[in-house]
# Entry
Amino acid sequence: MKGQDVILGVLLEAPMSGYDIKHYFEKHFPDMFVASFGTIYPTLNRMEKEGLIEKEIVLQEGKPNKNIYHITEIGKEAFHAYIQSPIEPKTIKYDFMMRLVFGRYVSQQQLLEWLKQELHQLKEDLVKLRSQDEDPCDCYCDCQKLALRFGIAIQQAGVTELENIIDEFENFGQKETAF
Amino acid sequence: MKGQDVILGVLLEAPMSGYDIKHYFEKHFPDMFVASFGTIYPTLNRMEKEGLIEKEIVLQEGKPNKNIYHITEIGKEAFHAYIQSPIEPKTIKYDFMMRLVFGRYVSQQQLLEWLKQELHQLKEDLVKLRSQDEDPCDCYCDCQKLALRFGIAIQQAGVTELENIIDEFENFGQKETAF
DNA sequence: CTAGCCATGTAATCGGTTACATGATTGG
DNA sequence: CCAATCATGTAACCGATTACATGGCTAG
# Structure
């Protein structure tokens, strides 16, 4: 699964600009895929050259012009190839968890700070997912609801466990650690 | 958090070869960081040139020689710089969840297969984490136990939710989908 | 006998990030 | 007035992956 595949997937739903695509990503699958403009624009340009998508320039008043991209037949075939390919194993880079593993090299204060910081982040993400889940505007298909539900379950578990950990931390052990 | 940081972290614990490092990664933090030999060996060579680590060649009988790497003072400083830097946001690439989102473009059979496949994978990972948790051989520090506990909680939530989803899937809805 | 483990490495490539550049409009 | 939003792009770089090459030992 690379940028191209996800872009094709969202363009299959509706024609969009690079700017729109990024916001779509952030709103609909923040916990599955991340892409910056630096990825999206060059990818779109390459895809256009390869004939996977077509550009339509939309002039706007008071705003910069938009490049709205439409998926082509070739693009649909490429998406199809992706969706039929074997699922790639998930890859995670979870710095917070790594810090926990190396936690003995920092102070208890630092560790507690990290825990609270991560809890805050997880809660924030959870709120986003939940609000998305309840939003009737976006008419998600059943599958998207499934994805959302799965994501929420995982996120919720993380929040709960972190809360427990922080609780124990504040009530018990203040053992020494050193670098 | 890049390969180098994690390598330094494990070398701080014990001198190791590239081969060992990979296995250490897989055993101790499968759900936090992934690295292939193609990443590890070039990284180790670069790190040696930069003086972060030192190579000790260990001759073995009946097996190829090992390059055991030791962390240097410069390496320790580099690790320290990492551990003091702000925590990087986690990045995930979760193809399975993406497939769920695009689930409407495949058959119900395909979707169900994907769900079962992922459940199988999650369960397998969970067993690994649990066995690691119970293993008294590895004397983990409290922090590592925390990381493990956190990982297990998340993994467990995923398994439970997937089981529910599959259950509903098999008992209800067989609506039509098309590409 | 053959598959798998042990063990290391390199060259080519890829996918993505960072930092920069541009520039108008709107809201506080 | 400043920050944010809208909107696109490029050049340099980086970290990592893939595919290949080597080769002996061990267990089924």
In short: Residues 95-171 of chain A form one domain. The longest helix of chain A spans residues 142-171. The first strand of chain A starts at residue 53 and ends at 58. The beta strands of chain A are 53-58, 66-71, 91-93.
